[in-house]
Amino acid sequence: MGGNRNSKWDTVTNMIRILIADDHDVVRMGLRLLLEQQTDMQVVGEASDGIEATEMTARLLPDILLMDISMPRMGGNEAARRIALLGLPTRIVILSMHSEEAIVRTALEGGAKGYLVKSFVRTDLAPAIHAAYRGETFLSPSIEDLVVKQFLVRKPAAQDDVAQMLGILTEREQTVFRMIAQGDTNKTMAQKLHISSRTVEKHRATLMLKLNTPDIASLMQVAIRAGLCETQA
Question: What share of the chain is helix, strand, coil (3-state, %, to 5)?
């Protein structure tokens, strides 16, 4: 009998806990219905604006906050920034009718792990949540090519002067960057710098944003050009 209880508890703890934030009741209902069809997802609450979403995220600590970008009182981008400042572990997937590159980029820079165009919710919702839960960035296929293309256009100009790029980093960010370049893990960096692993992750995310690098491989390329990586003869 004890084994059965443990099995049920394991099932519950393995569920992806999701908070929905949208100012339209019908949209929230539709999202809930789609999510409840997934065997590994659980809706833990609903919010109708960004202020409510921020407060509920701090209280419920969901794994994923699925949030509309345009809401009264406070929109999704501002709510995402506030949640990031609070250092909460919740990962944010933005919902929007808009697919313009500038709007998408603003959302990602604000801390969102995913950007989902509402017209593709039925097919992209579960993949977006699973990707964000794994710590990966998800973009609806309809905007992914556009964002990547814009990044590639900007990238050469942004990396022409590595010294100038490093100049926009704070002293602590430069320290973390050097440690990343030398292969230190988050745990090692946290121990050496006497900070939490979560703070290290925030520094890493800020580095990737400031240096315009979409992944660790690109970040390491900048480190190599800056002479931060130890290379064997």
Answer: 60, 15, 30
